Structure formats: C-alpha cells, structure tokens
C-alpha cells in the first residue's frame, strides 16, 4: 500500500465499483488472445476426428485436421499451439525409439503445420510417455525410472523436433539435467533460435487423468510418477527447480497444473521475473466442463474467471483446452 486508507466515509471502495465503466477503468488484469497456447492431440489417418469422453469438445485430430485447427488458431489470433501425439500401441517399446523417429506422428504434424501456417508458433512435448510401453516419462530399468539414460533419449527427441521445425520445445519429463543437455545439443546443431519452455514445476497430480486417456497412456502406466514429478505439498522446491532450469538455459518456465497451484505461479513470477506460464490441465478442463454441462456452473463465466486468475497470479500466458472458445469470446 502506498499510503494508509483514510477512514470511511472518505474511503468508500464501492464508489469505483458502481458502474461497468468505472470497473473497467480500474481493472488490474486482462486476458488477451495472445496469452493463449492451444494444446492439440494428433492421431494417425485422414479426416479423423476422435472425441475424448473425459474432455467434452476436445478431439484427437489427424494431421490434415490439425493443420485446419492451426489455421483456426492463426485466424483467432492465438500465437501458439502445442502438439501431443496419440501413438499406435504397436509402436510403444521399452526403449522408446519412436520418440526420435524424424517421421513420427508428432514430427509429421509439426512439418505440416509449419508448411501451411508458418507464422504460428508450434510447441512440442518432450517426454517418453507417448512412446513408452511402461507409460512413464523416462526409461524404466528394474522398476527404476533411470535419469541419465532418459536425458540422452530426450536430447535425441528434442533434436528431431527441432529439425521438424518446432519453435518451442516443452520438456515435461522432470528428469534432472535435461534442460542443460537439450540446450547444449540445440546450440551445437545450429538450432540457436529454438526456444525451451520448461515444465519446471510439474507436480505429480491426479488432474492429468483425462490427458492420459487422450494420448492412450492410462492403461500403459505402471505405478505412479512420484519419483520424478513434484510432491503437491511443496513450494520452495518449485523455486529451486525454476532457478535450476533457468540456469541451464530455459527461455520460459511453466507451473503445472494451474488452478491448484496459483500460489506457485505468483512466487515464481515474483522471484525470477522470467516468462511464466501455467498449464490449465485436462482435469481442470474436465471439471469445469462437467459442471457446466450439468447446468451447475455457467461455462463461459467460469472459463473466463479461471483463465483471468492466471494473469492475476503473474502468468504471462496459459496452456488451455479452452483456447479457441476463449479466443472467440474475446474476439466478440
Ligand atoms: C506427459 C504430459 C502430461 C501432461 C502433459 N505432458 C501427463 C503426465 O505427466 O502424466 C498433462 C497435461 C494435461 O493433463 O492436460 N509428460
């Protein structure tokens, strides 16, 4: 506070809330279409559009239709999309080679989008779970998710994505040392311009359930991800992770999930002042959609309120499945 408030009635804070015009004048935070990143699920085929039961309104799309969605993003003013592949179970192995196949589904989708809509930023996910017979983000040996061998695989995966034309790489695996290793490899291969948005503070959360359905990882996952993703009880540890990832060369950092972790967003932004994003994850989307489809919540209103909260908490932007709907609302 710059100065103590004079007592009532000199101070009546309701004065500036008395009309829509006055409220608009003193509004502290706004959401813009330019704050949105739209996650898209990709599946093999042509003209393929597969609904995901736990995520009403979200579809897995074949590459041709993902390109259509990318055009829609561009037309709506959304600056970036983020791709997640649904991998054919036959391609999932314990060594995860499909992850760095230059022609895997994700890399083909990146190329197709960059061909058709070069001005749109394409973000990709770096983690082994879509390709892993075990469903884990890392390579599993004797029940352990091994760190350093996984990092080597992630580096191959990152280079294949950069070669396909991805603008922003999103390591979501939570292995130690991956940001530095990926940054060094990108630099040495001439990909100086490829940015890293690190999933720096990613919690071991039950809110990822519907996403695992969407990418077909639910059945595959053996055990849980608690030895690499963060304990939801921790906050200082998130700051250490963000400091570490920025120190290793992350251009932007992410907190994930979003709504239950807004305190972490605020601490990260205040401490580092770096570009900070939140992921409003599949379970958050599913909750809001389920309640609004039952008529228990006003869907548009809770969408706006939940997304504005990320701006208030200090985020520069949000990954959200609501991106096209929110953009349409903002564009009137
Ligand atoms: C995979 C990954 C996950 C999400 C994004 N990347 C799931 C997980 O870690 O199990 C979740 C996104 C969402 O729930 O919307 N590494």
Shape: globular
CATH topology: TIM Barrel
Q: What hetero molecules are in the model?
A: ligand PBG
Order of adjacent strands in the largest pleated sheet: 1-4-5-8-9-10-11-12
Distance between the termini: 36 Å
Reading the helices and strands in chain order gives HEEEHEHEEEHEHEHHEHEHHEH
Describe the structure.
This protein is of the alpha/beta class and 332 residues long. It has a single domain (30-330), classed as TIM Barrel (Alpha-Beta Barrel), CATH 3.20.20. It is built from eleven helices and twelve strands. It has helices at 20-25, 63-76, 105-116, 147-164, 178-188, 209-214, 236-248, 262-272, 282-293, 299-312, 323-330, and strands at 36-43, 49-51, 59-62, 80-85, 121-126, 140-141, 144-145, 168-171, 195-202, 252-256, 276-280, 317-320. It has an eight-stranded parallel β-barrel with strand order 1-4-5-8-9-10-11-12, surrounded by nine helices. Strands 6-7 form a two-stranded antiparallel sheet. Strand 8, helix 5 and strand 9 (195-202) form a beta-alpha-beta unit. The radius of gyration is 20 Å and the shape is globular. The model has no long low-confidence stretch (mean pLDDT 97). Bound molecules: ligand PBG. Ligand PBG binds at residues 125, 127, 129, 137, 172, 208, 211-212, 225, 281-282.
């Amino acid at each position: 506070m710059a100065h103590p408030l004079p007592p009532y009635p000199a101070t009546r804070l309701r004065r500036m809330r008395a009309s829509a015009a006055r409220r608009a004048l003193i509004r502290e935070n706004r959401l813009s279409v330019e704050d949105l990143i739209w996650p898209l699920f990709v599946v093999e085929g042509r003209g393929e559009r597969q609904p995901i039961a736990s995520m009403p309104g979200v579809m897995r799309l074949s590459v041709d239709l993902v390109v259509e969605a990318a055009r829609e993003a561009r037309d709506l003013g959304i600056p970036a999309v983020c791709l997640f592949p649904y991998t054919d179970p036959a391609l999932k192995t314990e060594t995860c080679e499909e992850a760095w196949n230059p022609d895997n589904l994700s890399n083909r989708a990146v190329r197709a989008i960059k061909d058709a809509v070069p001005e749109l930023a394409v973000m990709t996910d770096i983690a082994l779970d879509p390709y892993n017979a075990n469903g884990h983000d890392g390579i599993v040996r004797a029940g352990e998710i091994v760190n350093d061998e996984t990092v080597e695989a992630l580096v191959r995966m990152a280079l294949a994505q950069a070669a396909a034309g991805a603008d922003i790489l999103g390591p979501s695996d939570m292995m130690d040392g991956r940001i530095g290793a990926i940054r060094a490899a990108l630099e040495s291969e001439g990909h100086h311009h490829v940015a890293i948005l690190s999933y720096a503070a990613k919690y071991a959360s039950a809110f990822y359930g519907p996403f695992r359905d969407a990418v077909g990882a639910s059945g595959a996952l053996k055990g849980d991800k608690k030895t690499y993703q963060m304990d939801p009880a921790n906050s200082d540890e998130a700051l250490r992770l963000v400091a570490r990832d920025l120190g290793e060369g992350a251009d932007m950092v992410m907190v994930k999930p979003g709504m239950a972790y807004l305190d972490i967003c605020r601490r990260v932004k205040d401490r580092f002042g770096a570009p900070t994003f939140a992921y409003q994850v599949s379970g958050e989307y599913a909750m809001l959609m389920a309640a609004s489809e039952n008529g228990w919540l006003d869907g548009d209103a809770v969408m706006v309120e939940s997304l504005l909260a990320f701006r208030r908490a200090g985020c520069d932007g949000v990954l959200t499945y609501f991106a096209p709907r929110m953009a349409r609302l903002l564009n009137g």
